[in-house]
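Duplicate of earlier report; C1q domain-containing protein input re-posted below.
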Amino acid sequence: MAQTTPHLALPLLAAGQAGKHVTHNEALLVLDALVQLACRDKDLAAPPAAPAEGDRYLVSAQTPTGAWTGLSGQIVVFGDGVWTGLAPQAGWLVHVADEDAFYRFDGTRWGRLFDGLRRLRNLEAIGLGTEAETGTAFAAKLERALWSARTVAEGGSGSLAVVLNKAAPGGAGALLFQTGFSGRAEFGLNGEDALGLKVSADGAAWRGAWRADPATGHLGLGALALPGTPMARAPLHVAREEAGPGLCLDAYGAGPVDNLIQARAGRGSRQAPAPVRAGDGLVGLSGGGFFSGGSADGCVTLRGIAEEDFSAGAQGAGFVVEATDLGGVIPRPVVKMRANGALELVARAGVPAAGTAPGQLVFDSTLGAFRGQTGAGWVRLTNQPRFRASTSYDNYLGAGTWTRVGFNTGTLNDQGLFRASDNAFVAPDAGTYTVSAGLAFKRNGDNAPASLQARFQRNGAALDGTRRGVATPVDGVSTVSLSATVSLAAGDRITVEALFTGTDGYVAAADSDFSGFGLA
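Output:
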């Protein structure tokens, strides 16, 4: 027959044993020590100096000393001036008073009972301060929650990550914020792999706030923020489906304030930016639109341009406005605000044929002139044409016949307006012109004409109201002067013709000329 119990090793009474009360008392003392087991401390390596009767300690030191020598890992109890060691068995629990913590013996070592709880697995539900309901496996009713990283000294890395993992792209991995258990904001991967935020005023109708494209990192705002909408086309892309501004910037201050959108450009990389060069873009606004079957970008653009290679002392820059002609698809520069302070209308060949309206202004490269639209047509505003022509010989004119005067030398021929081949001034464009001519008389021998007359022709026909003359001209003295202001179409030709009556004579080369200029 065994002499002790199998679990607590309590001494058993033997048949016919003398002094049974001693054995019985010993068993009671062991039971008193182990039932509702509570120790004062577990960290001492030697017995305390003045223990009380019945004091118990958990000896966790590897090599305890004094009366505890050889009792490592055991429960020791003080009684009748003696320390008695009780060897634990797997599953024993002890409360350590100075730590207010429970320890459990696993058959090899003592460990804090909470260590076991940190390894709990496959719980179906947890409720903190409330009940975990079906479909909500973890529920907590709190005023504040703290998540703190485990430090390196504690065996961690010092970092903290909270992971929400969904099974497939079409699922949701999100944080839902509610008021009175009605949804107001949802942040996360909502039915796709793009990170987004959507909001609601009533928990039923949801609007997108922003959404980040997982492939590019581009951020879409407004109408691009809900799942299923197109991804952002730029690092920041704003879209809206109703009237109103797409972007609003306010600025306030106690003194003078400013409200800028600031942009910087540089060659090289973000880590090592390099100077911009002449022609590089610094900032820009570009507009386009949709058409049936597609869209067009950059139809109109305001662009800031570097006009020189940048350095600490040279940062010349200006603005360029680009537009697309009616019926065209290629934008072109129309206005430049140059670094030198000049406003430049970019030259174009000719004038617009469509979309004209009073007040429009262009610089026509074919004429080298500014032209303005009056509502009735385009008129030249600058670089008005002018010419002066002479004849290299005395022009003989028979009596009684109108004859073209052979002006054949353009002494001033701005823009090539005088055409010597047909002795004519040719209007470069429609407008108003003033033409003048002076003809000097030279006698042919002793002939004495009754008169010398002159007039202008337009396209070979006499120009009404321009005839002038002198009677009984005097050789080397008499002249005929004529002048006219006339509206001409582009390409109209003005020539001078003269007539002697009575007898023939000459138009003298020395003192005869033909001139003109444009007015508008």
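The chain has a mean pLDDT of 90.

Merging into the original ticket.
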